[in-house]
Amino acid sequence: MRRVGIYFRGVEVFKKLITILLLPLNAIGAEAWVVQQSDTPVELNAVTFMLNGRSGWAVGFGGTVLGTTDGGQTWGRQQSGTPNELLSVYFAPNGLSGWAVGFGGEIITTINGGRIWTRQRSGTPNELRSVTFASDGRSGWAVGFGGTILATSDGGENWLPQRSGTLNELRSVSFTSDGQSGWAVGFGGTILATFDSGGSWTRQLSGTTKELHSVTFMRDGRSGWAVGFGGTILATTDGGRSWVQQRSGTTADLRSVCFMPDGRSGWVVGFGGTILATTDGGQSWLRQQSGTTKNLNSVSFAQEGRSIWTVGTGGTILSN
């Protein structure tokens, strides 16, 4: 009987240990995704939020720009001034200066939180898939079709091409806050890196030929992740000199990745309503219940990860 008692106490200890290990995943809301009303049926391709968790923007088909100032409780349409599909949006930390890019080489900008958007000259007809800026709000980059990389040093008044060394479509770009180190990913498993603000770009070995749709890096410029077709998740801890594959547990097309500044808590979204989460830097990924089968194209966090948003087809906006 004594051995049986010891056995059952051991089982209880084991159960408590498992509960403790799962707490971080519960803390990031494994079952707390809720639908927000976008009041649009169009596909939304990108979303971004300020750290205050209240001001945010989503962009998509037909030049759609949506804005919210109450944490997504209500979304209002902003006049973008373009009919072109918008694929990416970025806002400076001040929440006033922003840029969106899309089809036909479209670049639009605002200096008042989206009340007025104006067009900038990109100098290219190529589809632009992604845009980002350094923390100064003046140095920025946009990437897209045919290996296109554009750069600006004056907030987008002038955009100039940089040599990417590839004709593969580039789908995403990420830079450190100082604007020195950057990475771009795209078709054919392409990963490009620069450590001189885009003066020169070199190819990194991704270890895959699958399409890569999204890339993000930590402020230190060493830890980063890229996601793509067939459930692909790649990670690096040395600035991309070596990339290793992480187990996603899915074959879904993964479209977007974001991580908190701690480099441990992160989210990935993709086709079929796929949402994955990690609290250990991607060593393990857990599937979350999104409550939708719609394709999810973009994920963004605010308030240091206490609020997360994702957008997709059919005007889908989810929050956690």
Can you describe what's shown?
The structure is a single chain. 8% of the residues lie in helices and 40% in strands. It is globular and about 45 Å long. The protein has 320 residues and is mainly beta. Residues 6-30 have low confidence and may be disordered. The chain contains 1 helix and 28 strands. Strands 1-28-27-26 form a 4-stranded antiparallel beta sheet, with no helix packed on it.
Topology overview:
Layout: H1 2-27, E1 34-36, E2 44-49, E3 56-60, E4 65-68, E5 76-78, E6 86-91, E7 98-102, E8 107-110, E9 118-120, E10 128-133, E11 140-144, E12 148-152, E13 160-162, E14 170-175, E15 182-186, E16 191-194, E17 202-204, E18 212-217, E19 224-228, E20 232-236, E21 244-246, E22 254-259, E23 266-270, E24 275-278, E25 286-288, E26 296-302, E27 307-312, E28 317-319
Antiparallel strand pairs: 1-28, 2-3, 3-4, 4-5, 6-7, 7-8, 8-9, 10-11, 11-12, 12-13, 14-15, 15-16, 16-17, 18-19, 19-20, 20-21, 22-23, 23-24, 24-25, 26-27, 27-28
